[in-house]
Design brief:
By secondary structure, this protein is mainly alpha-helical. The protein has 3 domains: about 10-210, Helix Hairpins (Orthogonal Bundle); about 230-245 and about 450-580, no CATH class; about 250-435, no CATH class. It contains 15 helices and 15 strands. It has helices at about 10-25, 30-110, 115-120, 120-210, 255-260, 265-275, 305-310, 320, 335-355, 375-380, 410-415, 435-440, 465-480, 505-515, 555-565, and strands spanning about 240-245, 250-255, 280, 290, 315, 385-390, 395, 400, 405, 425, 450, 525-530, 535-545, 550-555, 575-580. Strand 13 and strand 14 form a beta hairpin. The longest helix has about 90 residues, at about 120-210. The chain is elongated and about 135 Å long. The two termini are about 60 Å apart.
């Protein structure tokens, strides 16, 4: 029997709607860690709600396939019976004609050869009797054949009628299955959409939290990344989590541009590598922009700032503005500098067109009162007026110092898709391992290409964690998966994170035991067991220790790690690895 839609799925609707409104109502007054924990719980709850829908959908798909196969088999049987019926009816018609002819001959002969005459005609009686008996036998056989054909035809008709009725019934059942499957597919799609929104919000919140690390956003900034593999924390065995690249991985990869220029690529080649659906337009050298601050009046005058004071708050020519930009080391090859100049020009024109001003900092582009040096000015002049466009408009040509071998779309990172950003494996050839990535990534020269972010002064300013500290993070994830309602107890410590009663590692262990799980006290090994080599994402990470072995989804581990890891230690990108010392 086909199960009809029941009200239990209204619970899924409520979860979806509540997830949406919770997402929409996240307060800026909440701490980032509190928001991260809240969104992580919502994602976990939503995934639990989607699971039974996926299971039923899979079962329905199987039932639909089986029903289709049964209907096809019945259709074949009906077709065979129909053909058999046609054949039998033809045979019956022939047999009826033959019978009619034989009856007619029999009648004529019966008049010609009267049984009494046959009896008295001794010379021919034996032959005539044989003919008479033989004719009667044939006629009787023909009649029996016709009866059998008629019975066979009736049975075929009955079988055909029964199969056609069964086919109609199955078609109705199949239609019900398909309607239910369509409903479930719609609900799963809605849930997945909300889940994607929640995941994106979680990503955004983590990005804000990571911003507190003050990671360099451009190649001209002081590159503060250090290689923790060379640092001894002073406690022996430890683990550190290394991220490939630093935020935000969107648009022009500056160190990648350096590598591509050294490989002989032109400025336009470099630009095309990092943006898609673009054209190059000329003639923008006459445009003007205002730099410094938000508008304070209708005449676009800005509040006081160092750069604005120099130019008396007046609009300035875009080419003059570009010569004051400091976003890339000027010792780099001309092709890299010219690609940066085109990206900077396009970004400035797009942002100025959207908000009417440009911040003189890394919020937009870093500018100084002093002109940059001759090599940069030459790159600006060499690309004078040349802009990267999409649909005839300058693109917001984001750029950052180091992508770690992979760039992402703006939608991947910030939630707003743009047609010109792209996912790119930024390497000189195929890769099958982290070693290949170290050897072939165009931005491998960056000190931030592979780095563990954050540190603790007491451990030689390193990001190394003790085996017991990694065990605590693993236990926190296990506890959260057991009972997401305990989220406010799982932050690293009570402070601005919003946790009002942070549980110690021992308390976390106790809570796990109370829920039937065996906690870890120490981790002995850790490894990334799967990663997406085309898009640059850690898919799963595994740990072994005194409580056995366990694996986690890469994104889930990263989110909880960034809540529980001590101090400001964080995983800052989608592709990361774990090292042991």
């Amino acid at each position: 029997m086909v199960e009809l839609f029941v009200p239990k799925y209204f619970a899924v609707f409520l979860i979806l709607v509540s997830s949406f409104w919770l997402l929409a109502s996240v307060s800026h007054a909440q701490s980032l860690d509190d928001q991260i924990a809240q969104l992580t719980k919502q994602i976990s709850d939503l995934e639990k709600s989607i699971a039974p829908l996926r299971k039923e959908s899979t079962n329905l798909q199987s039932q639909i396939t089986q029903t289709k196969n049964t209907i096809n088999n019945i259709s074949t049987q009906v077709d065979n019976l129909s053909q058999r019926l046609i054949d039998r009816q033809s045979d019956l018609e022939v047999q009826q004609i033959l019978l009619g002819q034989r009856v007619r001959r029999y009648y004529i002969n019966s008049q010609k050869y009267n049984p009494f005459l046959i009896f008295f005609a001794s010379d021919q009686s034996s032959s005539l009797i044989q003919q008479y008996s033989w004719s009667q036998s044939i006629i009787s056989s023909d009649r029996n054949t016709i009866v059998n054909y008629t019975q066979d035809i009736n049975q075929i008709n009955q079988n055909k009628t029964a199969l056609e009725a069964q086919k109609v019934k199955l078609a109705s059942i199949k239609s019900s299955f398909e309607n239910r499957f369509g409903f479930l597919s719609g609900e799963i799609k809605k849930a997945e959409t909300y889940k994607a929104q929640l995941n994106q919000s979680l990503t955004n919140l983590e990005a804000q939290r990571i911003a507190s690390l003050n990671l360099p956003s451009s190649a001209s900034s002081a590159m503060m990344c250090t290689d923790d593999r060379k640092i001894d924390p002073g406690f022996g065995t430890g683990f550190a989590f290394f991220t490939f690249g630093i935020p935000h991985h969107v648009g022009l990869n500056q160190y990648g541009a350096l590598g591509r220029a050294k490989a002989g690529q032109s400025a336009e080649d470099i630009v095309r590598a990092y943006y898609q659906n673009i054209e190059f337009a000329s003639g923008k050298e006459g445009q003007s922009v205002i730099v410094g601050c938000e508008k304070e009046s209708a005449n676009n005058r800005c509040q006081h700032n160092e750069f604005g004071q120099q130019f008396n708050h007046e609009p300035m020519n875009i080419e003059e503005y570009l010569k004051h930009i400091y976003e890339m080391p000027t010792s780099w090859p001309d092709a890299a500098l010219q690609a940066q100049a085109m990206a900077a020009r396009s970004y400035a024109l797009r942002v100025y067109g959207e908000k009417g001003w440009l911040a003189p900092s890394q919020a937009d582009q870093v500018v100084k009162k002093e002109l940059n040096n001759d090599r940069w000015i030459s790159a600006v002049n060499a690309t004078r007026g040349k802009t990267i466009t999409n649909g005839g408009q300058p693109i917001k040509a984001w750029f950052a110092s180091t992508a770690g071998g992979y760039t992402f779309t703006s939608g991947d990172v910030w939630g707003g898709d743009t047609p010109w950003t792209k996912r790119l494996r930024d390497t000189s050839g195929d890769i099958n391992s982290f070693d290949d990535l170290f050897a072939k990534a165009y931005d491998r020269e960056s000190p931030c290409f592979y780095a563990a972010q954050g540190y603790r002064s007491e451990y030689n300013k390193s990001a190394w964690l003790k085996p017991s500290e990694v065990a605590d993070i693993v236990n926190v994830i296990l506890l959260f998966q057991k009972d997401s309602s305990v989220q406010n107890h799982l932050c690293y410590k009570n402070n601005s994170t919003g946790c009002n009663d942070t549980w110690s590692p021992d308390q976390v262990k106790t809570e796990l035991r109370n829920r039937g799980s065996n906690p870890f006290s120490s981790i002995s090994s850790a490894s990334v067991t799967d990663w997406n080599k085309n898009e640059g994402r850690t898919n799963s990470i595994s740990f072994s220790g005194d409580a056995g072995s366990i694996s986690f989804d890469g994104s889930t581990f990263k989110s909880i790690f960034n809540i529980r890891a001590p101090a400001n230690i964080a995983i800052v990108g989608q592709l990361y690895n774990v090292e042991k010392r």
